[in-house]
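Protocol step 6 of 9: fold each sequence in the batch and record its structure tokens directly after the sequence line. For illustration, a two-sequence batch is reproduced in full.

Sequence one:
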Amino acid sequence: MSVTPLNRVEGGCSLSATSDGIRLQGPPPRLFEHRLVGRTALEAVFLTQQISADMSISHALAAVNAWEMIARINVAENGRVLREFLHALSIIHAHLRNFYLVTLPDYLPPGTLADYTGGDSEVKRISAEVRQKPPQHWSRHMFPHPFSPSEVNRLWEQSLHAPRYLSLLQRMMALLGGKFPQVMCMVPGGVTLNLTEALLIKMRVWMVEMRHFIGKGLMEDGLLVVNRYPHIKTLGRGVRDFLSVGSGEDDAVFESSIFPSGIYTGGRLERFTPVGTESIVTAFYRLAQPPPSKGPVLLPDPEKRGAYSWIKAPRHQGQPMECGPFARMIIAYLSGARIADPTLVETLQRETGLPLNEGNTTGGRLLARLAETTELFARCGVLLDQLDPAQPTILHELNPHKATGEALGHVEGPAGSVRHHVTLEKGQVLYYDIYSASTWNGSSRDENGRMGSLESALNAKPLDPAKPEDLRDLARIARSFAFSMSDATH
């Protein structure tokens, strides 16, 4: 068995090539679910944000949604809109960072920055600094690429301007949430924020500043990559079933939700029902004996025979599911939700040359992520118009800190679906179980030998991690899921 590290993956990740195919491996979990037992519900909202930087706000929302259901707390309308706005900003931030800082180096060799010939003064300065360094420093990651000199110039200008817009997004989220990536404003009943007209004006100014970059250049860059690397249009197809848990609210009216919930399985769209199981057959866990009455507790078992992964295997009605931007796109489009722009869906189908339900390939996921970014950015403008500084951002109807009960908190994050299963007694956590987006996508094999979507994609075509070009394709597949080992194992 050969083990190959995969760089630029949060939490550290390796690919192991075995006789049974390529498998995902990573370090042991931090056991957040165990650490939360005995803590207060408020601590759970803050601590679960440490699971993953990109998914931090999603975990906070899932935790506070579950808490509100247990305590039967209503949410102020301003608070609901602010949560949705803050969450949308976090997804846009994650998508931009994933494309320009994490994914693009797999297609545009970093050493090409030294060849920049464009007219952007800032990029010229950085390119000159690169050329002053020894060639082995900036050229060691060179590989053949299909971009013309003008396309190289364009991609470097976009890539080196992206951090400025990421910084703007971080400032917006820090102003709304207290800080970022761990926000401090999520509480039952809404958001702890003094909403003023001055703050809304500042948000609108920054939105205008980002409009050109996100509204036009983003999809053009994605299409350029996909068209110059046409093999990724069919590379790395995952499983055939898709999951979206929705916006964490009552989304019976699809057009009222930022993301509609649903299951696409067996070639048809079904309503989402929170019925899930976890398999640990090939994961380094065992059930506590006897199992506590409050719920099954999994204990680490690093010496378990037949196991190879610290990632559990969540299943919906026994099936592995793919979640994330592509899954949300197909479910939103088929449900008629407003967020699914038909022209963007048609673009994706035309560029991949595949039916929508077969387009979850490396190129398809890349385009779906960028299309979702443009849609969410437009949605942010609508949300800003709905905010009213004269109205409260939080309701104080009941005291939630002594709540007792059990609930599921669902929300869609940047990489996909999040579920928090919470049991409280007088405000303290008795039981906590988390299904994260990367756990769904990166799941280990179950008792029937079925792989999760990421492992299915890695094994869809014979690829050898020992070969540099094959390893680049394997990395491209993994990054098309925005996979995070920290989020997968938590």
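Sequence two, same batch, same settings:
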Amino acid sequence: MAEIKKRIPKRRFKEFWNAGDWEESKLGDLSDSFEYGLNAAAKEFDGKNKYIRITDIDEDSRLYLNTGVSSPNIDLSSADNFKLKYGDILFARTGASVGKSYIYKVTDGLVYYAGFLIRARIKNIYNPEFVFYSTLTDGYKDFIRVSSQRSGQPGVNAQEYSTYSIKVPKEDEQSKIGNHFKTLDNLITLHQRKLVKIKSLKKAYLSEMFPAKGESKPKRRFKGFSGDWEEREVTDLLKNSSTAMKIGPFGSALKKEYYVDKGIKVYAQENTFTGDFTTGDYYISEEKYRELKSCELFPGDLVISMMGTVGACAIFPDTAEKGIMNSHLLRVQFASNINSEYIMFLLRDSDLIRKQIDRLSVGSIMSGLSSSVVKKLVFPIPKIEEQERLVEFMRSIENFITLHQQKLDKLKNLKKSYLNEMFV
């Protein structure tokens, strides 16, 4: 006789280890009703009545976004049925966002929901947070993928949502799970806010610690530094005007058939996106390398992406394998009185430099960055000692950002793991 599969999660709170199987239900069984939202346009926020649409629900956190709050452009005297209350869960019913869910929070205020959303009003005997978090699992995603397959625009209607199969424990276990994920979400939100704050602080420092357009000194400066900064074109900052700026090999010089399993590494744009030069699967032979040796990268070189994510850049580290760059990369080597990291920070993060790139690229036939544009970029240049002090400071902020990003990613991965282990 075949063994009957138990309806229990892989991970369970200790007090519920012997609480038995979860009950199999349908979302329709857990809900008092499924109803479509208001068929009304949005207008400027009136200060009281909020209007939630698909685009007002954050894709990642599933929170109601505070930016661009609007009100329904309709007489609300007979629209009480479209007010959200505790226990309400919204589902996107059509388009690319089909399946996106949101649970109403009292702190969101007085909220009406729009017509492309479906409201499930969860019965009082069930925990709405438990039901909501079940809609973030891989099992729910599979349900949406199958249910939304249509010849035209993807969609899931109220009747189809009501058939979503959900395994449910007793109410006290539902509450424990719902509260667990609420606590985890609050922690994720806290780290996200910290990360946004640090990034905003970095942007503020960039605007104050470097001279504004037309000025020769920054508003904020480290103690011990004085004197004017110079505005200089990149072409005047190079180590050697003839060889310091080099684009990777073009056309037939580096075909796919030249790649081998192991040899001299070929670096690509992806390495500049993260600054990680340990990745990459392409190699060329020693023989081919000798032919393309002029495209070799050296420690301290500024490497810039010329296509794709234009302007992404990184410093080639002394720990990286010997290698050459592909045709979508530009290598820049600076004179001894120029810190390449200093140029990198400005090229990557400064609005002034980005505006120069946009202006100089006007009329370009190719969609990308050219070496001629890079040569004409004008950077504010202090003495090398001040460059190095600024690099040290900006590096410390970036390390702080990376640390918080790693903590945030760890929490998100933990949540993802729990979602697929604490639900059946």
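Proceed to step 7 once all outputs are recorded. Observation for sequence two: The chain has a mean pLDDT of 90.
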